[in-house]
Amino acid sequence: MHTSDFRQALGPLYPELGPGVPDPDVHAESVIVRVLNAGPDSLREQMLAYYGPEKVRSVAGARVNRLDAPVYRDWKSRLHLPERAAAVEKMHRLWRQ
Description:
Layout: H1 3-9, H2 28-38, H3 41-51, H4 53-62, H5 69-79, H6 86-96
Helix pairs in contact: 2-3, 3-4
């Protein structure tokens, strides 16, 4: 995938930047978490192709507490994510109620 294609696809996820979008290489960690939490499935697949599963797994694993509960459940087995702390799980359960 070309950088410009992936970069352009990020635009709708960053309305606060107006016409600008973050550089996916410079801001990879932020982009990966934002795409997982708010991106459509097609953009998530583009992200996996762009960064590769190892990079996405590494970033998502290090920021597992920042993933929304549904995203964590959906991607836990695919990315082999670690368990979240009990306090984080409790917070997400309370948030859903």
